[in-house]
Write a structure and sequence with these properties.
108 residues; alpha+beta; five-stranded mixed beta sheet; 5 strands
Length: 108
């Protein structure tokens, strides 16, 4: 039986990585509370072993994005969502790679 590990989080845009690591970015300008929630959501993604781990958190409002294969979103707060795509690589262990693609103002 293959052992799963925590999800690997990658960033499509360097500015999204910068926002997570430093709490600020040249491209994204959000209130401190939104940044803090974004960082918490990335931590949640990192702690998951597979995509199914995200289903149990109702507050994430996890959903597949229509018309975009393997793209999903979770809620950052009532105004913003975090969009990402998932792929699985089956090697010696099952690796789930989550690529963070954008923060959108979907819920306005």
């Amino acid at each position: 039986m293959q052992k799963e590990q925590e999800m690997i989080v990658e960033y499509e845009k360097e500015s999204l990585k910068e926002l997570y690591k430093n709490g600020k970015s040249k491209k994204y300008r959000f209130e401190a509370a939104v940044v803090k929630k974004y960082q918490k959501r990335i931590d949640t993604l990192m702690a998951a072993t597979c995509i199914e781990d995200l289903f149990v958190f109702n507050s994430l409002n996890f959903e597949a994005l229509q018309g975009r294969n393997n793209y999903f979103s979770i809620r950052i707060d009532s105004h913003y969502r975090l969009e990402f795509r998932i792929k699985r690589e089956e090697t010696e262990v099952v690796l789930t790679i989550c690529t963070v693609t954008d923060i959108t103002n979907h819920y306005q």
